[in-house]
Design a protein that fits this description.
By secondary structure, the protein is mainly beta. The protein is about 0% helix and about 50% strand.
Length: about 325
């Protein structure tokens, strides 16, 4: 989540559609050409347990590699709030400062995460085609529909915008009729193709309330996630066949960041992973789920560094397989 309203100034380097690196390049907005930047990312490996790098298991989850991502080239690579991985290696992320980041994931022979390539950074634009700034730029959630259209949920000025895969400026789509607190709103959003090609779900951070939405219908209340009161709902995924995954986050100065990943089939908890010190942990807000090489599910977690030198942008991979 964003705690500042810093204005972003974008150099005129190359024009990139918000549809990402696999799409045809062209203007993002109708009123202005928006610059995108190919950036160099340094990816340093991180162990699951800094005190014992041989540790690779966390309950029923196997650590499949992790990276600390930085860039000396730009100070705009920060505050990434949510991620989606399409195919098996195409990552897209949005950030609090109104940015969209794309990369190709790189793996070793054992399919462990070892790097990123083809990395690009661009501004999210508003309805006027210009880069978002200030309170309107606080992007928190990302979902990608089957046709490539992207849904981005925003805090502070609460709304959900659709960015068409064909390019152009965004348009507002249905969002819950709720009175969200300024900095605690629609942190979680996920496509729900099992319901329909235009279906998506939205989750509120502090209450754990969720809503079922479609592009042409009002959002309706869904389940309220039962969670410890100090934890907030920061991301969610639908895996099909009634299986849902939720990412919960808590922080206090004594225990630091604490993360819970929960997987439900209907209302039955089938797997849970707890991540806290002394393990590698930070302000994880982004969650992506894809089929894993071993036939299970691979989860990617990305942390929001809040633009702070004391926090990191981490990308961790975990594999789960029913035993």
């Amino acid at each position: 989540m964003l705690h500042r309203a810093a204005k972003r100034v974008w150099p005129a380097l190359a024009v990139l559609s918000i549809a990402g690196p696999s799409a045809a390049q062209g203007p993002v907005g109708t009123s202005t050409a928006v610059a995108a930047q190919t950036i160099v990312i340094d990816a340093a490996p991180v162990p699951l347990n800094p005190g014992d790098p041989s540790v690779t298991a966390l309950g029923d989850f196997s650590y499949a590699g992790g990276l600390w991502l930085t860039s000396k080239q730009t100070d705009r690579f920060r505050e990434l709030s949510d991620i989606v991985v399409t195919g098996h290696d195409r990552l897209t992320a949005v950030g609090d400062g109104g940015v969209i980041f794309s990369a190709r994931l790189v793996f070793d022979a054992a399919q462990r995460l070892i790097g990123v390539a083809d990395t690009r950074l661009a501004p999210l634009v508003g309805e006027d085609g210009r880069p978002l700034t200030g309170s309107r730029a606080d992007a928190e959630g990302l979902a990608i529909l089957g046709n490539g259209d992207r849904l981005v949920s925003f805090e502070r000025e609460h709304r959900i915008w659709l960015y068409s895969a064909a390019g152009g400026t965004p348009r507002a789509v249905p969002s819950p009729a709720a009175n969200f607190p300024s900095n605690f709103g629609m942190e979680a959003i996920a496509a729900n193709p099992g319901v329909g090609p235009d279906a998506y779900s939205v989750g509120e951070e502090m209450s754990g309330k969720t809503w079922a939405c479609r592009l042409t219908l009002p959002c309706v209340a869904g389940r309220t996630l039962e969670k410890p009161g100090e934890f907030g709902l920061v991301a969610m995924n639908h895996l099909g066949e009634g299986t849902e995954v939720y990412l919960l986050r808590a922080y206090d100065p004594f225990r630091g960041n604490r993360i819970i990943l929960q997987m439900f089939r209907s209302t039955t908890l089938v797997a849970q992973m707890d991540l806290a010190l002394p393990l590698t942990v930070d302000n994880f807000e982004g969650l992506a789920s894809v089929p894993s090489p071993n036939g299970g599910i691979r989860f990617y977690l990305m942390s929001d560094d809040n633009g702070s030198s004391s926090q990191r942008t981490l990308l961790l991979a975990f594999d789960w397989r029913r035993k």
